[in-house]
């Protein structure tokens, strides 16, 4: 891991890790984008549930 990446925010490190994983498995861009829509919706719901319980 480069020094810049080590100092990067968590979400940037996560994005880099996910990109590397998807590229290593040669997942088609269309499939990645469709999956990301599902993931985004799921995590928005989780975020909203956390906010409503605070």
Explain what this protein looks like in three dimensions.
- This protein has 54 residues and is mainly alpha-helical.
- The chain has one domain (3-52).
- Helix content is 80%, strand content 0%.
- The radius of gyration is 14 Å and the shape is flat.
- It starts with a helix and ends with a helix.
Mean pLDDT: 95
Overall domain count = 1
* N-end to C-end Cα span: 36 Å
Largest pleated sheet: none
Order of helices and strands: HHH
Number of strands: 0
Question: What is the percentage of strand-forming residues?
Answer: under 5%
Structural class: mainly alpha
Number of helical regions: 3
Over all CA atoms, what is the radius of gyration? 14 Å
Shape: flat
Unreliable runs: none
- Binned, the helix content reads over 70%
Label this structure with key terms:
3 helices, flat, 54 residues, DUF2496_YbaM-rel, mainly alpha
Secondary structure blueprint with pairings:
Layout: H1 3-6, H2 10-24, H3 29-52
Describe the structure in brief:
This is DUF2496 domain-containing protein. The protein is mainly alpha-helical and 54 residues long. Helix content is 80%, strand content 0%.
